[in-house]
Amino acid sequence: MRAVSRAIGWLLVTALLLCLVVPGFIAFRVWHVARVDDRTAADAIVVLGAAQYDGVPTPVFQSRLEHAATLFEQGVAPQIITVGGNQPGDRFTEAGAGRAYLTELGVPATAILAVETGSNTVGSLDAVALTVRDQGGESVVLVSDPTHSYRSQMMARDAGLEAWTSPTREGPAVWTRENQIMSIIRETGAVLWYQYHRIAGTDVDFPG
User: Residues with Cβ < 8 Å from 202, sequence gap 6 or more?
Assistant: First the structure.
């Protein structure tokens, strides 16, 4: 009985350590990748969608789009892909609103492709992967908020793309230390949720 109790005790300690170590490691990776700004030349710059209201991107979305326009001007890629569908009742998609805003910034309309499907990051990136491959490409630079970079890069690579990240350093998502900490916590949970569904072989329904 003593040996059984000792074994159970070790199992509980191991489980507790895993519950602490795994989220801690993922949180570190979220923080670490958030600091990376990789402007490697690619086939496309992909702007991950965020909320828009009647065709007007929110400040968070605007920050991503403005950063993508800067990367385009620097010659990182010959085109920008905006992604994201719409919510029930919306007249515009995130991708469409993003494309319109980029043209206002001076990006040629011929250099912008709106992929207007996907209600979350994994769905949008699956659609982007098909689009990029149909064009004969394979590499992308992802533009999102810093703490979103790790998960989006993981999803893009799982979809078969060579993916690098160049997050925006402006906007509400990075204004305060509190926002950044809460984003790391949220993204840690989102990565765990994604990994669980990937291992289980089920659809990922996390909204972000």
Answer: none
Alpha helices in 35-148 (DSSP H): 59-73, 94-104, 121-134
User: Please, where are the H alpha helices in 118-176?
Assistant: 121-134, 149-158
Task: Please write the tens of the pLDDT for every residue from 29-49.
Answer: 999 999 999 999 999 999 998
Kindly state the helix (H) or strand (E) to which residue 19 belongs, with its residue range. helix 2-34
Structure tokens at 118: 């996907």
Residue in the structure block whose two tokens are 């507790």? 16
How far apart are the C-alpha atoms of 4 and 12, rounded to whole Å?
12
Element (H, E) at 112: strand 112-115
Residue-wise pLDDT for 85-112, tens only, equals 776 667 888 999 999 999 999 999 999 9
Burial label, 173 (beta-carbon count in 10 A; 0-12, 13-18, 19+): buried
Give the number of residues written for the chain: 208
Say how many C-beta atoms besides its own lie within 10 A of residue 108's C-beta: 11
Q: DSSP letter at 79?
A: -
